[in-house]
From TrEMBL:
Gene symbol of the encoding locus: ftrA
One MF term in the entry's GO annotations: DNA-binding transcription factor activity
SUPFAM superfamilies: Class I glutamine amidotransferase-like (SSF52317), Homeodomain-like (SSF46689)
Identification of the protein by name: Transcriptional regulator FtrA
Classification lineage: Bacteria, Pseudomonadati, Pseudomonadota, Gammaproteobacteria, Arenicellales
PROSITE patterns per the UniProt record, alphabetical: HTH_ARAC_FAMILY_2
Length: 311
C-alpha cells in the first residue's frame, strides 16, 4: 500500500490542501487497494490555513517510509526553508520517491533546487516571479500540469485535481482514475496548452442523446461518422448537432474524436498492438488520422504516449 504524506504548515492554502485530501486521503472502500495518507507538519505549533481555519495534523520529524509527498502550496517569497523540511524533502527526493506540488507548492521545490534542469509550472500569476527566481528550471506555459520523471507540478488551484488524477492513473490505471473522476464530477475535457485529462465517464443523467452516446461507445471500433449517429437518432444532421451541443456541451465531432482517442489511449497502455492496429480498433480510418488527432489533443505522438505510459 502506497504511503502518502500531505505537507501542511502555518498558512497553508486550504483549497489545495482539501484537493490533496479529497484525492488521496478520502476512504474509498470500493477499491481493494488504495493509498494510506496522512496530513503532516514539521511545525510544533498550532496551525491555521487560509481564512484562519484551524488545523490539527500529525507532527513529524522526517518523511521516513513515505512513497508520495504532496505539497499543496508554499509562500512564494519564503526562501528560508526550515531545516527539518529541507532535509526531509531532499532526502525523499534522493530516494527517488514521487513528489507532487500544487499551485505555489512548486516554489518550495524551486528553493530547494529540485527543479533545476527540469520542466515545471505553477500558477500563471506567479510565472514571472518563478522564472526570475529559478532560471535553471524549464518553465512550461499554458499547461495544466507537468509530470517530469518523479516530480509533478500543477499550474493552479483546480489544476491540482488534474495532476492528482494523473498520478492515480499512473499508480492504479485508467479505470480507477475514471472512477475517482466520476466521484469528483470532473469534466471529461480539461484543456491547457495541450489536452491533459483523465477520460471521465459520460454523465449518468438521462437525456435524449444518451442512447446515441451508448450506441456510439459500444461501436467505437467501427468507422462510423457523425452522420451515422444522426441517422441512428432518426434526426437530420442539423437537428442532431443542435441537440447534441445542448445536452453534451460540445459538437458531436469533438465528442466522437475524444472517445476514439480515449479508446486508443487504453489500447496503447494495455496491449502490444502496433499503431495501425490501434487506429483500426479505435475507429480511425488510418494510422495517419490517429497520429494527427492524438498529437492535436494530447500534444504527443501515440508512440511517445506508449513509451511513457504503457506497461
Amino acid at each position: 500500500m502506497k504511503q502518502v504524506a500531505i505537507l501542511a504548515y502555518d498558512g497553508v492554502a486550504f483549497f489545495e490542501l482539501a484537493c490533496a485530501v479529497e484525492l488521496f486521503a478520502l476512504p474509498r472502500p470500493e477499491f481493494a487497494n488504495w493509498y494510506q495518507s496522512r496530513v503532516v507538519t514539521f511545525d510544533h505549533t498550532d496551525l491555521t490555513s487560509t481564512a484562519g481555519i484551524g488545523l490539527r495534523t500529525e507532527v513529524v520529524d522526517s518523511l521516513a517510509n513515505v512513497d508520495l509527498l504532496l505539497i499543496p502550496s508554499w509562500p512564494v517569497r519564503q526562501n528560508q526553508i526550515p531545516q527539518r523540511v529541507s532535509e526531509a524533502v531532499c532526502n525523499l527526493h534522493k530516494q527517488g520517491k514521487q513528489i507532487l506540488s500544487f499551485c505555489s507548492g512548486a516554489f518550495l521545490l524551486g528553493y530547494l533546487g529540485l527543479l533545476n534542469g527540469r520542466k515545471a509550472t505553477t500558477h500563471w500569476r506567479y510565472a514571472d516571479l518563478f522564472q526570475e527566481l529559478f532560471p535553471s528550471v524549464q518553465y512550461q506555459h499554458d499547461v495544466l500540469y507537468v509530470m517530469h520523471q518523479d516530480i509533478g507540478c500543477s499550474a493552479g488551484s483546480a489544476a491540482a485535481i488534474d495532476l492528482g488524477l494523473e498520478q492515480i492513473r499512473q499508480d492504479f490505471g485508467l479505470e480507477m482514475a475514471n472512477t475517482v473522476a466520476q466521484r469528483l464530477v470532473m469534466s471529461p475535457h480539461r484543456k491547457g496548452g495541450q489536452s491533459q485529462f483523465v477520460a471521465a465517464p459520460m454523465p449518468k443523467q438521462y437525456n435524449p442523446i444518451s442512447p446515441i452516446l451508448d450506441w456510439a461507445t459500444s461501436h467505437i471500433s467501427s468507422p462510423f461518422t457523425v452522420a451515422d449517429m444522426a441517422a441512428q437518432a432518426s434526426m437530420s444532421r442539423r437537428s442532431f448537432d443542435r441537440h447534441f451541443r445542448q445536452h453534451v456541451g460540445c459538437s458531436p465531432k469533438q465528442w466522437l474524436i475524444g472517445q476514439r482517442i480515449d479508446h486508443a489511449r487504453q489500447l496503447l497502455q494495455e496491449t502490444g498492438f502496433d499503431i495501425e492496429r490501434v487506429a483500426g480498433h479505435s475507429g480511425f480510418e488510418s494510422a495517419t488520422a490517429l497520429r494527427h488527432h492524438f498529437r492535436q489533443q494530447l500534444g504527443v505522438s501515440p508512440r511517445q504516449y506508449r513509451d511513457q505510459f504503457g506497461h
